[in-house]
Amino acid sequence: xxYYIIAGEPSGDLHxxxxxxxxxxxxxxxxxxxxGGDLMKQQGATLVxxxxxxxxxxFVEVLMHLRIILNNFKFCKKDILKFAPDAxxxxxxxxxxxxxxxxxxxxxxxxxxxxxxxxxxxxKQRVYTLKKVVDKMLVILPFExxxxxNYDVDAHFVGHPILDELSKLKTVNKTIFCRQNGLNPKxxxxxxLPGSRKQEVSRMLEVMLKTIKMFPEYQFVIAGAPSLSExxxxxxxxxxxxxxxxxxxxxxxxxxxxxxxxxxxxTLETALLxxxxxxxxxxxxxxxxxxxxxxxxxxxxxxxxxxxxxVVKELIQHDLTPENITEELKLIxxxxxxxxxxxxxxxxLRTVLGNAGASNNAASIIVSDLKNK
Length: 373
Prior knowledge:
The protein is an alpha/beta fold. The chain has helices at about 10-25, 40, 60-65, 65-85, 95-105, 125-135, 140-150, 160-165, 175-180, 200-210, 230-235, 250-255, 265-270, 285-295, 300-305, 320-335, 335-355, 360-370, and strands spanning about 1-5, 30-35, 45-50, 85-90, 110-115, 135-140, 155, 190-195, 220-225, 240-245, 255-260, 275-280, 315. A 7-stranded parallel sheet has the order 3-2-1-4-5-6-7, sandwiched between helices. A 6-stranded parallel sheet has the order 10-9-8-11-12-13, sandwiched between helices. Strand 6, helix 7 (about 140-150) and strand 7 (about 155) form a beta-alpha-beta unit. The termini are close together.
């Protein structure tokens, strides 16, 4: 069978690559065409567009790149019809993918949405569109299945794909890691995860870097996004005493004592690796004001949303200052009680998310459903 997969950012590329591997185990004649990244390509997908050309965040940024987005969508429709897939699999990236779902449904192509848009947080009316144009929702957060059930949407909780990745991890030796990456093995590490898109990295890193001088006894290390160049980071860093490592985020977190993390999937990854963190978010002011009026949840980080309580500190927009980041980092680095509470909540979080196997579960549902049809 033929599968057309669309992911618009690095995490989607990662989860899409694992899904492709699982699909190929169950359908050895699978032909796969995809929008994503290098990881999906490595699994044998024919790469149509790279996510680095697709990732625009915020209302203002989307408007500025509207022509590019519309041209991408126009091309996507033609490419789908030419490929004539048996199934379209959408991975998050809702602004683009929901439009694709409508188009596919109109042309009688089965649609599977793996990793749901956060319709439970904002634009809740989208759930009615998803109900109409998506054949099955394959959700990765426990509460999402109940949310969709309330709207009579066919949703299946498959588990969280991050657990698949973490189950493959080998324990990292800090001394060896530091020596291999030009770090000081004798100093504790504070990891900086400023995001993956140029706009957010520029905005977040500028604030994060101003905390370095407050922690002379620690070394700061940036988890570099694979889609961004070292030169891009160095232009932001300037003379600050900070190192960068690329494609080693999980290894870096394993040896870090604390982390400052931009809101997104990385907050959950950091928690599941048991690293005390402070969650950061700062957007374009206009985009932020619009989002503030639209988003109807108590928290922005996945950790707090899943646990439905404040497990990790969130510093949002005007609260995201070097002083506030410094204060929270000092607290989680020096207070044994604070650390104990965070780590106990992380343990409960892992239990709530269940076991590894999301990619395999999702692939089983998709392939089985297609064969039955």
